[in-house]
């Protein structure tokens, strides 16, 4: 599943390419899909709208829409990529990948496509009234804090009294939003913390080390376009490069990049967890 760096990379790429463009046609596949808004309602709501901006909120890509490129936001098209979703900017004559479930034609001649082989992604259209704006803000606020902006005090408060293993706590989206398996493993390695260590037993100093490491890794992963270890590609269909710098994730049995001890894998909270038994304690 795409994590924060991948979602951020896609959102930035789509924003650079389509912000200010206008949706002239909208097509949705009839194949069963977990759309949160019916296809016909989405199509009717999207056509004629300008895409004023595209940004990430948690693991969601939010397309802010207006009646013209300079107007205030009047609606939102919200994309959750699920396990294998892709949001691509291309041209109408470009090859249409299998499992394409949405195609938005734009006034510029480009096309915005949603592709999702496993169909776990979600698409939602929202008209923004005063009440729906408030509901939307509350829904996104109900998710965890953003690891790129969380303060040291907020981070310590999240974990200092938890009985959960720190890896499981990092994956809890109600605590931190956007952190998945890859970046939990990599940040715990960078901070020298064993994934199985109970959150509440970690000192304030080590939690701050983890917060800083997590933010640094996420920002570096964004710079490199994310990690392509499965189906992930950016808005142009290009793979990321951060997977080339993984220190522990999917490196079971390979030597640790710091001490040469073989990397181990265990199952924690139902997720494969990779760590160095010597560097992490």
Describe what this molecule looks like in 3D:
The chain is an alpha+beta fold. It has two domains: 4-142, N-terminal domain of MutM-like DNA repair proteins (Alpha-Beta Barrel); 152-275, Helicase, Ruva Protein, domain 3 (Orthogonal Bundle). It has seven helices and ten strands. The strands form three sheets. It has a four-stranded antiparallel beta sheet with strand order 1-6-7-5, covered by helices on one side. Strand 6 (100-106) and strand 7 form a beta hairpin. The radius of gyration is 20 Å and the shape is elongated.
Query: What is the gyration radius calculated from CA atoms?
Result: 20 Å
CATH superfamily of the largest domain: MutM-like, N-terminal
Strand content: 15-25%
Structural class: alpha+beta
Give the C-level CATH assignment of the largest domain. Answer: Alpha Beta
What's the rounded overall pLDDT mean?
A: 89
SS summary, helix count: 7
**What's the helical proportion of residues?**
25-40%
Distance between the termini: 28 Å
Q: What is the string of SSEs from the N terminus onward?
A: HEHEEEEEEEHHHHHEE
Number of domain units: 2
Taking the sheet with the most strands, its summary is: 4 strands, antiparallel
Q: Looking across the biggest beta sheet, what order are the strands in?
A: 1-6-7-5
The low-pLDDT segments are: none
Number of strands: 10
**CATH architecture group name of the largest domain:** Alpha-Beta Barrel
Question: Which outline best applies?
Answer: elongated
